[in-house]
Amino acid sequence: MRKRTVIFLSVLITVLLISGAVWFISVQQKGSSIKVLQTVQVQRGSVSVQLKSTGIVQPQVGAVVKTGTRATGEIERMLVHVGDKVEKGVLIAKIDDREERAAYLIQEAALRQAQAELVNVNKTYPLQIEQAQATLNGSLAKRRYTYLTWQRRTALVATGVLEQASLDEAYQDYVVAVTQAKADKEALRLVEENYATAIINAVEAVASAQAELENANIQISYTEIYAPITGLVSQVTAQEGETVVAGLQVANLITILDPTRLEMLIYVDETDVGTVTSGMAVNFTVDAYPNVIFRGTVSQIYPEAVVQDNIVYYQALVPLSPETAIQLRPEMTTQCSIITKEIDSVLVVPNDAIKWVDGKKYIYIVDENDRATPVSPELGVMGENNTEIVSGIKEGDRVATRIIIPTTQTADDK
């Protein structure tokens, strides 16, 4: 009995040893073969090199307008609220304007008075000039008469008809008439000069009163606040019943944002800024719409650096179209891909087809029997998804994208 047990155990150990050897050989044989799981055909396509970065959406210059007032007074009406859409030129707030209107009435009265004075000057001075001219005409006529009288008496005295005293009297009358004519002529000149001065002063007074009246009207206009642009109300800093005091600075009441005028600033690392130029296409996403890809174009690179967390960045400006901007909001963070290089109509393989084996890049070409043969082709531009094939692989070849490489080798099994 004991002998049978020993024999059975010996047989069992032998069977186990044989089975183990068979299993080990089988595993070794399996490990020495390449198993192809997925393939693609080599064909022509495009390769794009993309620079990943983050950005921020912000309003363009002039897209945000802070609307205020230069008037001091109580807000009678506030006609908008945050989020309201307003059109340019629409009344959005009204301030008490009683003081301004009272000042307007005062200036209106001053203008009427100045205009009346101008009318009075144009009415009275011409009469004074007419009277002075008539007086001068009379003086000139009297001077002429006295002169002739003096001449006649001179002849009569010479013939002895009249005495010398009569001639002296005539001469004295002539001298008085000449003096009076000179005085009347000077009086006319003074009236004319006074008229010219008065008319200038009166016209200037009217112009000044008109300017003061216009200024008063402008002061009234400050009490009515109109939307300067079309957009959305983003801030309202005062409500009905509150008093605003306008000092050296305009009191801001309402902020309006034009949601169609946005732009994006991309923060490009200083090590990558040399690869980015104006005109490059940009694809980006935001967390609010993770499945939507927005597009834009780099317009310029700002020369001044921005330092964040001890890292130097340069900002690339990307204007956004109104259709894109209307879907976004200021201060949104964006995940951007700047296409720094793109080539078309070249042989490409997916990046998954490139395997690292023993520190070298290989691509496995698969034949009709699904046997994989590693090759080391000349590679060109490596893009986000594809890599350019310069030589070593032909169009139409099948290459493996997913394989199991023997464990005796080191590989990157993508």
From TrEMBL:
Coiled coil: none annotated. GO terms for cellular component: cell envelope; membrane. Residues 267-338 form the CusB-like beta-barrel domain. Signal peptide: none annotated. Its main location: other. SUPFAM superfamilies: HlyD-like secretion proteins. InterPro entries: Beta-barrel_RND_2, MdtA-like_BSH, RND_pump_MFP, UPF0194_transport. It comes from the Bacteria. One of its GO terms (molecular function) is transmembrane transporter activity. It is found in: Cell envelope. Residues 65-254 form the Multidrug resistance protein MdtA-like barrel-sandwich hybrid domain. Keywords: Coiled coil. It holds the Pfam family Beta-barrel_RND_2. Belongs to the membrane fusion protein (MFP) (TC 8.A.1) family. This is Efflux RND transporter periplasmic adaptor subunit. It comes from Halodesulfovibrio aestuarii.
